[in-house]
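Fibronectin type III-like domain-containing protein (Durusdinium trenchii), 739 aa
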Amino acid sequence: MRHSLGPLMSPVLLMLILAAGLATAQPSYYDAGVSACVPGAGYDHFPFCNTSMPLADRVHDLISRIPDGVKPNLLTARGHLKSRGRQALPELGVPSYYWGTNCIHSSMSANCTKDGRCSTSFPSGPSWSATFDRNVMRSMAAVVGRETRAFFNLGNFTDNGRNGMGLDCWGPVANINRDPRWGRHGEGGTEDPFLMGQLGVAWTKGLQEGEDQRYIQVAVTIKHFDANSLEGGAAADQGYDRHNFSANISKYLLADYYWPAFRASIKLGKAKGVMCSYNSVNGIPVCLDPLMKAARAAWGFDGYVTSDSDAVSDAWRRHHYVKSAAEASCLALKHGQCDIDSGNTYYDHLLEGVKAGHCSMEDINRALFNTLRLRFELGLFDPIKDQPYWMLGQGDIGTDEAKELNLIAALESLVLISNPGILPLKAGQRLAVLGPHGNASMDLIQVDTGVVCPPSPSAHAGEWQAEAADAGQFYCVRTPYQAIQETNGKNGTTTYVRGCDLSDELPGGFQQALAAAKLADVVILGLGISERETLDPKFMEREAHDRDRIDLPPVQQQLANYIIALGKPTVIFLLNGGMVAVEDFMNKKNVALIEAFYPGMEGANALAQSIFGIANRWGRMPYTVYHSNWTKHNSMLDHDVTHQRTYRYGADAVVPFGFGLSLSTFRLAFASAPTATLPLAYGSDGAVLETVEVEIRLDAVPEAWKQYRLNWDSQTGCPSSEFADATHDAAWLYNFLYS
């Protein structure tokens, strides 16, 4: 069953993805400014180019040839020099490299190819979780990885290859859905640590593992470690934002709730990258916290760590944890194991810190080793003739197989919350599509995306120009109204009236919407919020801005109330990242309700197929939907989720985590009551020494995917519901750091 979270990869989907590029020709240029050790270029005689040497020896040889004064620039994410030569080592034949190619649900830094192929824009993070399908998650990540490699080979990023954009994908976002107001829920996924961990594992394996096991396809960078779920906005009146906030969290909750997704991604997925966040945890800026140093040992992490955009500077400018940028740089490098600074603090102050004795060149060389080793593991210092990843090109971008997968993912992510016999609709009826999202294109796609549509040829006198592609163009994205109109067929009529904007009235909008609704057999309402600056800030979610309110903007609620009062069968679909309160639509005899999140490029087609019953692949809620007044009693600053937050800690839910209906009817019954005896082994101190694993899988039970693995720590007496040794890892980390 799909919702059982079965094997991590679908062989059929994987073969479709891999087969798409087998006939792709090798790039016409060998190095394209992104490959080192090019044969015949005069630099391949260096020992670090000798593939017969152990990898570590090759990396150490390269480091030994780099002048100390150059090293801070190599530990600066995008390089301080704003030119093609940023981070390049021309005397060694080592090209520029750019850390920070974002991958959230697409190859975000990608442009379009010259033949008009753009990166595949999949559904948003919550949509991935709502599928409860690791096969689809990993398959989507595999497409993003292959397309990123192909764009890299072509030099076809949004900077047109001028800055050597790299193969380290900054994503996915593994932060837990602690508070529905958080502005970045569109990037995140779920409130459940286990499910988020499985998403992280799928993302990691899909991005990093391809057909050539010798090399990493694209390096994942799990972000933002850790407890990063406050941006600013809802908490701004208290003087806090993501750059100066310190989350106070117990050891137990760090182990049980905040760490498991990162731990799973590293231990099970073998993630090669982690991003440390702006905030502090228990008074220590995360990028300066020795926790990552301990995690390298406890979790076997052997990759690199980058800061979020100059979070190192925040440690002294905003958190006031240290007195200078030089000290912040050295503590981040030495204690926080932060190898890359996504800012200029390392570049400007790291050597100053070495001179002051805060850290040493050995610390700098360790960070260089972690970062350069990854570039070697990506195959950027080896001959490319027998590397399949270098053969990827235009034909591997925007393939038909990727589009098919995109539709499947969108179908599996839509959640049917209520349906009093309205769905599926029959084609050939009189339909009125209403609401600010009824004809949406841009808002179907989560904001962190690559270029979606190629520039129109007519805009350039018939000459297609890749560099003219604009990430703000969405003309090629089918809207819900268009998809519903087509699916309703020629024998039906489908009209569209906007009715209102996202948070503002339109002149005559309500009257026009009501007039269209009265003539219709069925009304379809597209409501919700947005990550783009098109509505009242109290309702807007985006990076650096949390919502104040979790209900619909009043003007949308008013429109919905008018339409529902007509008594016509009404289908409401919602576009949003974080939850939107829906209590006013529940238990209405004439309202079917669909949560669509930001469903991606194929979202409109998925909505139409699901509404008309052509498809029946519904998902499950990845987080709790609270009552609209929840924010009045819960502070945005409170990180103690045991205060009745999420399904794990007794949340009062309007729609619970894991809930979702189907167009099918199910019945569950036991012929006889099942029984089981579970033996336990106890130590002399009474602690449970043996892990008991219980796995339950029942068709059509919304939460049947859960696997509970309980083990009690003899010191705390607290259960951990993550993997069997998670509590022991957590205890080891804290003993290492603080005992």
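The longest strand covers residues 219-225. The first helix runs from residue 11 to 19. ok done for today
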